[in-house]
Amino acid sequence: MSIDTETARRVAKLARIKVEEEALPALAQEFSAILGFIEQLNEVDVEGIEPMTSVTPQRLYRRKDVVTDGGQQAAILKNAPDAREGFFAVPKVVE
Amino acid sequence: MTDLSKLTIASARDAMRKGEVSSVELTNAYLSAIDGSGVLNAFVHNTPEIAKAQAEAADKRIKAGDAPDMCGIPLGIKDLFCTKGVDSQAASGILKGFKPEYESTVTTQLFDAGAVMLGKLNMDEFAMGSSNETSVYGDVVNPWKVDDRNLTPGGSSGGSAAAVAADLCLGATGTDTGGSIRQPAAFTGITGIKPTYGRVSRWGVVAFASSLDQAGPMTKDVRDAAIMLEAMCGHDPKDSTSADLAVPNFEAMLTGDIKGKVIGIPKEYHMEGMPAEIEALWADGTAMLKAAGAEIRDISLPHTKYALPAYYVIAPAEASSNLARYDGVRFGHRAKLAAGDGITEMYEKTRAEGFGAEVQRRVMVGTYVLSAGFYDAYYNRARKVRALIKRDFDEVFAAGVDAILTPATPSAAFGLGEMKNADPIQMYLNDVFTVTVNLAGLPGIAVPTGLDSKGLPLGLQLIGRPWEEGDLLNVAYSLEQSAGFIAKPNKWW
After folding, report:
1. How much is the average pLDDT of B273-302?
2. Catalytic residue at B320?
3. Scanning every residue of chain B, which has its alpha carbon at the shortest distance from the alpha carbon of A63?
4. Is residue A14 within a helix (H) or strand (E), and if so which, with residue range?
5. Are the beta carbons of B443 and B393 closer than 8 angstroms?
6. pLDDT confidence of A60, banded at 50, 70, 90?
7. Contacts with B345 from chain A: Cβ below 8 Å
8. Which residues lie across from B215 on neighbouring strands?
9. Across the interface, do A15 and B351 touch by the CB < 8 Å criterion?
10. From the CA of A33, how many Å to the nearest CA of chain B?
11. Which residues contact A61 (CB under 8 A, 6 or more apart)?
């Protein structure tokens, strides 16, 4: 499948990665090559096969739905690029 | 002074227990070796103060006589592991300056056992790469050198591999999502094991593709791999996929006796265009196991060919989801914003500046295969093929095969920069023999068994039954004994 510039622009947007307009054609070409490689999967007969959800047969562990941790506001904010008054600060969000 | 090039974890442990050398002495010797190794670019954040404090504490425990096997052993830690208060940035610009407030389970276990951290090791960015050329810290150089070219140590655990091969540490942690322990181990003449999925906790290891990621040791030989793996394994309630199984004494299982073991040789791994040297290495390894008393059986793993394309759907899909957390809000890099920029611009600029080209490519491929309209055609199909790949292995093991022998890599180490203009798929082919093992969740080990005509190391891979790392290590031990690989890189750095 060949990916056009418009699709590349849309994927970059979905991935929230800024790609300059002039870089889009090359990106589209790379996607096309990778997806071409992936398309070999269409040769495989997967009729009746369940998609794998877990590579080991065990069920995921469950724990009691209780608070086991907390009170770590300072540690959680420690690496934030912009933390103010106990919050993560971000640019204005207007929807 | 101790000859670091001859030392192993096992011999250092024994020497420390006998009082012949102290952990402080060893640690200082390795710290000096690291200081002289800048050109290799393997260590990227040195932690001498932590190392010295840990070494002093280890010496006290050893004197007291109750020290675990890893006590006092100087290690390098891959930058993918979160280490409390120490830069942990997965070789990415987006985590520049990130100092975790917590310690990964693997490093916690190693430090509790008395191991010493010399520093953090270079790698491919977010473990995405097979040549250690995608790192924000720059390329790692392979200590093996046969002409004027600088060679890749492989990837993504390239810093770990180079550090062990160059005697900058006694062992290193690695992680393996598609071959990132085994391929660099093979390229540098060392041993590396990826355990069964669920054997080692992923908690505190920066996530790449969570259904494939496993950590493991990279060491100078199989015995050391057994010792270090045991210290890394175990159930962890903080990782919901961690297996609640007893961890055996792997070292005690190294008898070298493999009489009657059935070793499978998969015909699909005879890849077209594979160098004759790799074929010969594989045939030699097969003969060695046979001579040691194993039964050799030709087997078929019919879906092998589809492992790489399935991997390049599943791994990017999971990566695009895992790496969504790098948004410039809670940790790591945030782009400088222009007047009027809102939160979307912040995300987009931050991620464009923080992620390198290969990471961006994989995140976007993953985004595409998960997007509406393509999810079934790509992602679900890949997960079905993955189920078939696992079934191939299940059937072979059910028929009585104990371990499978394959080449570890399709070539010896190549020159840094030589793949720069190749398309990304050429680089992906490095993992052609290793990636099946991740998709099936199996344990796999790379063992150095020979040199190519230029004098570069080559390795073979053994694949074991799930949870049977002990038996796998024992087969690897037998192969190691027969191969007698003792070559070391000439020190040029």
Report:
1. 96
2. no
3. B237
4. helix A5-14
5. no
6. confident
7. 18, 91
8. B175
9. yes
10. 8
11. B237, B240, B242, B244
CB-based contact (8 Å) between A23 and chain B?
A: no
Find chain A residues with C-beta within 8 A of B365's C-beta.
31, 34-35
A1 CB within 8 Å of a chain B CB:
no
Distance between CA atoms of residues B96 and B183, nearest Å: 27
Catalytic residue among B22, B23, B37, B78: B78
Count Cβ atoms within 10 A of the Cβ of residue B246 and give its class: 0-12 exposed, 13-18 middle, 19 or more buried. exposed
Q: How far apart are CA A56 and CA B124, in angstroms?
A: 27
| CB contacts, 8 Å: A34 with chain B | 312, 361, 365, 424-425
What is residue A95's predicted lDDT score, i.e. its pLDDT? 66
Question: Is residue A79 a contact partner of residue B101, using CB atoms and an 8 Å limit?
Answer: yes
Please give the torsion angle defined by the CA atoms of residues B459, B465, B470 and B474, in that order, rounded to the nearest 10 degrees. -50
The verdict on whether B78 is a catalytic residue reads yes
| Model confidence pLDDT, tens digit, residues B146-171 | 999 999 999 999 999 999 999 999 99
- Residue of B329, B375, B394 to mutate, interface with A, max A Cβ within 10 Å: B329
- Please say if B210 is a catalytic residue: no
Q: State whether A61 and B346 contact (CB < 8 Å).
A: no
In chain A, the percentage of residues whose pLDDT exceeds 70 is 98
| Nearest residue on chain A to B334, alpha-carbon basis | A81
SS3 state of residue B446: strand
DSSP A30-88: HHHHHHHHHGGGGGS--TTPPPPS-SSSSPPP---SS------HHHHHTT-SSEETTEE
CA A46 to chain centre: 26
Cβ within 8 Å of residue B407, ≥6 positions away: B269, B274, B278, B281, B282, B433, B458, B459, B460, B461
pLDDT of residue B245: 95
| A40 touching B (Cβ < 8 Å) | yes
Q: What SS3 class is residue B369?
A: helix
B339 φ/ψ angles, rounded to the nearest 5 degrees:
-60, 135
Say if CB B361 and CB A3 are below 8 A apart: no
- Nearest-CA distance from A67 to chain B in Å? 14
Q: Find, among B226, B167, B159, the residue nearest to B192 by Cα.
A: B226
State the smallest CA–CA distance between residue B19 and chain A in angstroms. Answer: 41
> pLDDT of B180-234, one tens digit each?
999 999 999 999 999 999 999 999 999 999 999 999 999 999 999 999 999 999 9
CB of A55 less than 8 A from some CB of B: yes
pLDDT tens, A23-35? 999 999 999 999 9
Residue B481: both structure tokens together:
């004994």
